[in-house]
């Protein structure tokens, strides 16, 4: 900074001081807003956009630390998310504790569901956000035994989240689409839609592997990756409805984590 001989600040300092004050004010105001509102703020002016574009800034770091449970920040669940803003967004898109079976609860980290050991029941959970436009990707990690049926996919709000018996609940009606990891079958409307992936002797899912679910609302398709290998399009002709990340499970005390990644990276 430049100073005059009396030790006071010159007029050259004023723009920089103004910027610092404005940034401090913005940090305070923006700290009260959720991600959707912050996204709207980024469209107001170039200065606000520049402030919010740095996804690893002190602002996003403090916002992330304030919102996310410490257990989540210390785990390796979000190892695929390189910025604080992405971690925060994933938390907002995690499992919905108010949209799951009564036999399921969401653990304190916010990203992992736990199915209680209830006999003769199949139980499901949906994410907080549904998608009707754009392209979206999230990871699913099954952290306990699969049991006889373990299904990953999507559903509308109309799909059931609990039923009697041990069945493929996700994919049992026309409001849900799923991949049964135990049998490598695609399921929709109560029918097996074929084997998946289309490989000879396709390997079965191993507990702890990361599955990427890719929902393309522009092309109305659902695809999967496993171990970063694209497995092909699983479903086409998806409806023009909000579609939510969903899983259904039958095994007692099994746990399933879901981490939203954002738009898929092509290539």
UniProtKB/TrEMBL annotation:
Pathway: Protein modification; protein ubiquitination. It is found in: Synapse. GO terms for cellular component: SCF ubiquitin ligase complex; synapse. Residues 73-265 form the B30.2/SPRY domain. SUPFAM superfamilies: Concanavalin A-like lectins/glucanases, F-box domain. It comes from the Eukaryota. It holds the Pfam family F-box-like. CDD domains: SPRY_Fbox. The keyword Coiled coil does not apply. The keyword Transit peptide does not apply. SMART domains: FBOX, SPRY. Keywords: Neurogenesis, Synapse, Ubl conjugation pathway. Residues 15-63 form the F-box domain. Its main location: other. One of its GO terms (biological process) is protein ubiquitination. Belongs to the FBXO45/Fsn family. This is F-box/SPRY domain-containing protein 1.
